[in-house]
Fold this protein.
Amino acid sequence: MHRFASRSLYAYLSATKRCIPSSTISHPTAHKTNTTLSPSKGVKPRAVIPSLTRIMVGSTSSVLVDENSVQQIQLLTSTDDAYGGVRVEIKNPMDSNVFGDLLRASISQWRQKGKKGVWIKLPIEHANLIEAAVKEGFRYHHAEPDYLMLVYWIPKTAHTLPANASHRVGIGAFVINSKREVLVVQENSGGFKDTGVWKFPTGVVNEGEDICTAAIREVEEETGIKTEFVEILAFRQSHRSFFTKSDLFFVCMLQPLSSEIQKQYEEIEAAQWMPVEEYAAQPFVKKNPQFDSVANICLAKIDVKYTGLSPFSATSSSGKHNILYFNNQDLKQPLSSISQA
């Protein structure tokens, strides 16, 4: 373990003015030689092992202090993950130079312990520390509205850190009533603005939101129509569609529970109920293979009893709730361990 004296350390400890001492910990260290004078035996050498005490600095770092010398080691507080790496979350303000010192010392210790990946969660209010982390070899992994995640691979081997999320998930809502009318909208922004094309209500699935829930929400947000989810009829995968990310788009069938339209003025230019055959006959739909295929699948569902994927509520081995989508019409045996969502 590297040991160093740092003026910035004393400045940092003085600035915070709050140290929480804990019990003395054992730590491998070189013996120091001290002397005492004896009237009969003169000078007698004796070995002294300095004690090292851990001092917590705020909630972001800890210090190993040699009580008999000025040599000190300051480290970032971290937790081990299940893959041989460590996770660090910066919670308190810190000078970027001090952070750089902490990071170098911590990486040295993690390397000696055989750690691999290092993850640093940096809240947006501590963005001043980004440059110091990048100088030590960290790179961006992903960003959210309130934090940036930085990663570093310690071994001199190809890293095995998982990549950031690769897909965005969207839905298109096929809402059909008992009159064979489909709910359609015209958008006032995006690629369909001023095209005159009538299309299904669409939207993006939120983080932590089920596909079936997203479809119900998007329909109500855009048109005011309340619905009940029926099935996933089909899904499409495309690539490099949104900031280089891939896209999964699920065509969902829903049954309306209301009929009076109240369109969303921010995104929707117009909304109406349209005969499904009229929708499918639009020139744009006929000329576009993807839209034409989806229209034919929807027609098959209401005419030929095409079977899609129904949602069932399930529980994982860890107890986490999830939704399983499958063709329950052709299932030979009922799934007794799950219930329909």
Summary: The chain has seven helices and 20 strands. The first strand starts at residue 19 and ends at 25.
